[in-house]
Structure formats: C-alpha cells, structure tokens
Here is the input.
Amino acid sequence: MRSAHKFKVYDFTDPVTSDTDLPPREQVVAEIVQRLEPFRVDARPITGATVITKDLNIDSLAVMDMVMELEDRFDISIPLNDVAEIHTVDELAEAVLRKVGGR
Here is the structure.
C-alpha cells in the first residue's frame, strides 16, 4: 500500500507589503468617524468632507491624541508636519492608508 505524499506549501508573499493586508478605505474612515463622534456638535453626520477642527468641537490636543490612537491601531507613524496639513476626515484617512502601504 502506498502512503500519500504530503507536501508543505510555502507562502512567499511578504505579509507586511501584501495588498491584502491593507485595510479597506471604508474601515479607516469608520475608525476615524468613531473616534470623532464624541466631538460632533449637531445632528450632521461626520463624513469624509468634515473639517476636523472647524466642523467639530475638538481642540488640537484631542486631535493629536486621536492621531496617536490611529498610529497605534494601524502600527504606523504620521510625522507632525504631515498632521498639520490634514484638515478633513478624507485627508486623515488618505494619510493613514499611505503610511500603512509604505511600511
């Protein structure tokens, strides 16, 4: 009786740079919106076009805390000079996705 051969399959894709490891844009936006929800001032929903410091009741310290939470969540680092140029939820999501893709 012959024994069945067992082959070991190796995965040579780099898990750090694999496209499948990138979070979907919607997930990143949802995480940002969730963190910004406590700062909403009226019934208007938080969208990608929401200007973080203008449309919400949030100060710069709270923005930095939120960015640090996102950095920890996605294992990235967004330089302070980049953070200063981010104004909307969409811009923040793009910054996170760029950094995740560039790990």
